[in-house]
Each structure stands twice: as C-alpha cells, then as structure tokens.
Design brief:
Layout lengths: L4 E11 L5 H8 L4 E11 L5 E13 H11 L3 E2 L2 E2 L1 E4 L4 H37 L1
Antiparallel strand pairs: 1-3, 1-6, 2-3, 4-5
Amino acid sequence: MKANREVKRLFVGGLGQNISRADLQNQFSRFGEVSDVEIITRKDDKGNPQKAFAYINIRVTEADLNKCMSVLNKTKWKGGTLQIQLAKESFLHRMVIQRTSQHTSSLVLTATQRRHQLGSKATQERSQ
C-alpha cells in the first residue's frame, strides 16, 4: 500500500544570501516532489540584502515530511542555519477560501429557497 502524499507548504528561514532556487529544489527533493520554490530577500533601509527566506511547495508523505524537518532543521547550509516549519496560510489564500465558501453557501441557499418556492407554488395550485 502506498503512503498518502499531500502538498505541503514549508517556510524555510535562515538562508544564506547566495541561495538559489535550484539549491533548494535539490536539497528538498530528497524528501518529496518539489513543485514550487519562492525565495524572498528582505533589504535594509539602504537596499542591502539583510535576510533571506523561502516558501517551498512539496508533495510528501507525513513520514517523509517529519524526516525532512528532523534532518534539515537547525543545520548549517550554504552560509545560513536552516529554520524549517509548516508555512502559515497567507491572508490572500484565506480570503479566497472564505469567499469560495460564502459563494457556495449562497448558491446552496438560493437553490433550497427556489425548491421551497416551487413546492409552495405547486401546493397552492393543487389546492385550487
């Protein structure tokens, strides 16, 4: 039986300044299928790179995710000390989910109301 693989979004902090997408792809693909790597570099007031972190989407089993975190978290790699955790859901992603949920609820409510109206109308016609 094959283990269930799900897409997880990881936050990877403490990256060195010269890290590349290919570096992260290679490092994390040992544990699962990496589908996206987004590197973000924060700059100081003078525009100098100060802090680098990344978000990685990886299709992975729960066991391989735990292995990835235990093997890589707090290790020194390419000029930084990795800090790995599950990423928090972004505000924009939460808004999309909330709007989709509200839209679906309103469609269900509208359909239910319509069925109720049709049922009431049919009842009235039969009683006449």
